[in-house]
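wait is this the right file?? whatever heres the structure
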């Protein structure tokens, strides 16, 4: 069974070229100021903070890197996803942005601006949006790259690249301000929308914390894989059972 679902990483050169091309495009995006109105044609993105907070001074990502199972060589067919983390510059945020959905709005304006930019490229114009584990506050991008087999022939890659925004761990203090019982939104500023009807304070805080610890999570898994090569096989088999 393991042989049937394991990816041959000696045959992934075309998607590796696409990853590098995407990295170059994102790293060279020009700075600019954006607001939710900038993305009126991208209906999937929603913004919840007050009008005065809805401004983002965009700068290109601090880093763009592969963070998931493609890097760890734990892909399991037929689901071929490549997770990439785009680190939002620390200067984008103020300490108070953890309150009243401002962090989430800035995060999602940043992502929407990238989606809009990629739609104007030839190689990465096939962009869709999904919610991270169903969380309406945390969309991410799903990109199906166009692979050029020859000058006359193009095809969509069998891999899907997932783009996840991340932030540095020092921006907010999880142990002080993002504990499960800490309420970081005002009742009178809570958005009256059905998708947030059952949002708990712990879920709100955990969503921010998740974005801060991608690096640490990857490092932990990588260390375990280095200590025991069979752990990679265990992850692949577990993925098969989950699906």
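ok assuming it is, sequence goes like this
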């Amino acid at each position: 069974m393991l042989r049937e679902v394991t990816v041959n990483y000696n045959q992934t050169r075309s998607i590796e070229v696409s990853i590098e091309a995407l990295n170059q495009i994102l790293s060279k995006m020009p700075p600019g100021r954006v607001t939710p109105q900038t993305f009126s044609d991208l209906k999937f993105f929603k913004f919840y903070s007050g009008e005065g907070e809805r401004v983002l001074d965009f700068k290109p990502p601090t880093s763009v890197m592969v963070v998931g199972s493609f890097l760890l060589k734990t892909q399991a067919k037929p689901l071929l996803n490549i997770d990439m983390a785009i680190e939002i510059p620390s200067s984008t945020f103020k300490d108070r942005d953890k309150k009243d959905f401002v962090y989430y709005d800035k995060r999602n304006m940043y992502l929407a601006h990238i989606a809009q930019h990629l739609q104007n490229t030839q190689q990465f114009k096939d962009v869709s949006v999904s919610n991270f584990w169903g969380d309406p506050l945390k969309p991410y991008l799903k990109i199906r790259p166009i692979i050029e087999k020859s000058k006359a022939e193009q095809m969509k890659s069998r891999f899907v690249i997932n783009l996840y925004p991340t932030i540095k761990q020092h921006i907010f203090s999880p142990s002080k301000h993002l504990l499960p019982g800490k309420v970081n939104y005002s009742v009178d500023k809570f958005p009256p929308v059905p998708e947030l009807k059952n949002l708990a304070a712990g879920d709100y805080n955990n969503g921010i914390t998740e974005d801060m610890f991608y690096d640490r999570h990857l490092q932990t898994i990588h260390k375990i894989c280095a200590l025991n090569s069979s752990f990679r096989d265990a992850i692949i088999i577990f993925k098969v059972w989950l699906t």
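The chain has eight helices and nine strands. so i think its the right one actually
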